[in-house]
Automatic annotation (TrEMBL):
This is DNA-binding transcriptional regulator NtrC. It comes from the Bacteria. Residues 10-124 form the Response regulatory domain. The keyword Flavoprotein does not apply. The keyword Phosphoprotein applies. It holds the Pfam family Response_reg. Residues 148-377 form the Sigma-54 factor interaction domain. The modification 4-aspartylphosphate is found at D59. PANTHER family: DNA-BINDING TRANSCRIPTIONAL REGULATOR NTRC, TRANSCRIPTIONAL REGULATORY PROTEIN. One of its GO terms (cellular component) is cytoplasm. GO terms for molecular function: ATP binding; sequence-specific DNA binding. GO terms for biological process: phosphorelay signal transduction system; regulation of DNA-templated transcription.
Length: 497
């Protein structure tokens, strides 16, 4: 078995054709994913128990067993292990049966590197969401998984609410601005719920175009629309008995809202283009950063669906309203960034902490995490000084505090905004020189990330925070702009969709 470092992910490829395993080994050669291979079902079962892979690629035809039978056994050993079925073009029915039995996805041979890469990375993320424990308020050094930190009264209420609601089989609506920790809450509910041994599937409704979202959720029959050359099993069917997390539910369009309502009320649905009624036993957790009540008033969101989803609501406060949490989170992210980057920044200078505390954190915890990470990348020495913080933080913190009404709030109408580029005006060569002077081992990623952050913030600023217009000017989709804003922790006071 290859050496595996603790943070490494492990993929098991089960196929009797050595060329297939060789292809996977080649594709992930320089990555954090180590590839193990098995040519028979019995070898696969042994490796699943001994090496505990994070995902399995499974050929349906094996010399000593039928792939689908093996899949059933794998499910009994570990029902949360994502399994991707690999089939020849003519095995369509097998792939469908596998999906109905709960396989995560399938790939048709000959495999193409792009879709293989995408499916494997998705499987790893699905596994992470299911098994990475979310511990509440424990930031100790033996941590494995994500911690949810917070000592503020508002977060204490959130922790209590998670405890109250997790073991009840009801829908939960999780509300809060972007980056406040909604996904963490969803995972904590799942992990403490009655369905914790069953799958947890997350779907970001804003990240998938409407037409695809319907078939992603409900599946489709062959010929349901142009391009539907095979029957497809949707996430609701795959998630049978489990928990489905619908992130950004406010972005779901009306026809889909009706279909989802039926799943909640009658526990039934039909695949796109199908007439067979399928029963659905899923617990729905939904999240939104939008003012759903206003969307109900304006007819954009079905009121009956809102009431159904809102069996219980957990509202995450924005970071700027969490007294005491910023210091805890700064310390937590200092430790995690040190571990991740192999740095030894022992403490954060009191001036830097006070600057960070004065900032309004429109991107919430995600933005704070990104700022600390970025500052630690750039720091030399053992103390993080204010000089290593992005200029925007210093600039805003030295100004009088803005009234709360001027910043983005979940229920506010899209209005005025203020999006600022993160870095001071500088030439690209200055930016590169600055990064080079930190002798980082992630120079490429650091520079590209800063350029991306600067570019997107500048264009958004120019477009008055209008994501659609910014996307048009940048030549990328609105979904991509939005996910970059989140990922890069770009501070926006107001997003205009
Ligand atoms: N209380 C917390 N303690 C530690 N880390 C946190 C906390 N809240 C959020 N985070 C971290 O911040 C990042 C963003 O959290 P998460 O994705 O859960 O936010 P979100 O509200 O779902 O965002 P979005 O609406 O943009 O999807 C994650 O890396 C998460 O681990």
């Amino acid at each position: 078995m290859p050496d595996q470092s603790p943070g490494d992910l492990c993929l098991l490829v089960v196929d009797d054709e050595p060329a297939i395993a060789a292809l996977f080994k080649h594709v992930f050669a320089d990555s954090e994913i180590s590839v193990l291979s098995a040519g028979t079902a019995s070898a696969a079962l042994e490796l699943i128990q001994s090496a505990k892979p994070d995902a399995v690629m499974l050929d349906v035809v094996l010399p000593d067993a039928d792939g689908l039978q093996l899949f059933e056994t794998v499910k009994q050993i570990d029902p949360q292990l994502p399994v991707v079925i690999m089939t020849g073009g003519q095995d369509g029915q097998t792939a469908i049966s596998a999906m109905q039995q709960g396989a995560m996805d399938y790939l048709v041979k000959p495999l193409d590197v792009r879709s293989l890469n995408k499916v494997v990375r998705h499987a790893m993320e699905v596994r992470r969401l299911m098994v990475e424990p979310v511990s509440i308020e424990r930031a100790d050094s033996n941590r494995t998984g994500s911690s949810m930190i917070g000592c503020s009264p508002a977060m204490q209420e959130v922790f209590k609410a998670i405890g109250r609601v997790a073991a009840q089989n009801i829908s939960v609506l999780i509300r809060g601005e972007s980056g406040t920790g909604k996904e963490l809450v969803a995972r904590a509910i799942f992990q403490n719920g009655l369905r914790k041994e069953k799958p947890f599937i997350a779907i970001n409704c804003a990240a998938i175009p409407e037409a695809l979202l319907e078939s992603e959720l409900f599946g489709h029959e062959k010929g349901a629309f142009t391009g539907a050359d095979r029957k497809r099993i949707g996430k609701i069917e795959q998630c049978e008995g489990g928990t489905l997390f619908l992130d950004e539910i406010g972005d779901m369009e009306a026809p889909l809202q009706s279909k989802l309502l039926r799943v909640l009320q009658e526990k039934q649905f039909e695949r796109v283009g199908g007439s067979e009624t399928i029963s659905a036993d899923v617990r729905i957790l939904a999240a939104t950063h939008q003012g759903i009540e206003k969307m109900c008033e304006s007819g954009k969101f079905r009121e009956d669906l809102y009431y159904r989803l809102n069996g219980y609501t957990i509202s995450l406060p924005p970071l700027r309203e969490r007294d005491g949490d910023i210091e805890l989170l700064i310390e937590f992210f200092r430790q995690t960034a040190n571990e991740e980057l192999g740095k030894e920044i022992g403490r954060i200078a009191p001036e830097a902490i006070s600057t960070l505390k004065k900032y309004s954190w429109p991107g919430n915890v995600r933005q704070l995490q990104s700022v600390i990470h970025q500052a630690i990348v750039q720091s030399s020495g053992s103390v993080l000084l204010p000089d290593f913080l992005p200029p925007l933080i210093e600039r805003e913190s030295s100004q009088p505090v803005l009234p709360t009404a001027a910043v983005d709030t979940t229920d506010a109408e899209p209005a005025s905004h203020s999006t600022e580029p993160v870095a001071e005006t500088q030439s690209v060569s200055e930016l590169i020189a600055r990064h080079c002077s930190h002798h980082s081992a992630t120079l490429y990623d650091d520079v590209i990330e800063e350029v991306e952050r600067e570019l997107i913030a500048t264009v958004l600023n120019k477009c008055g925070g209008n994501l659609t217009e910014a996307a048009r000017q940048l030549g990328i989709t609105r979904t991509t702009v939005r996910s970059k804003v989140n990922k890069l922790g770009i501070g926006i006071r107001k997003v205009v969709e």
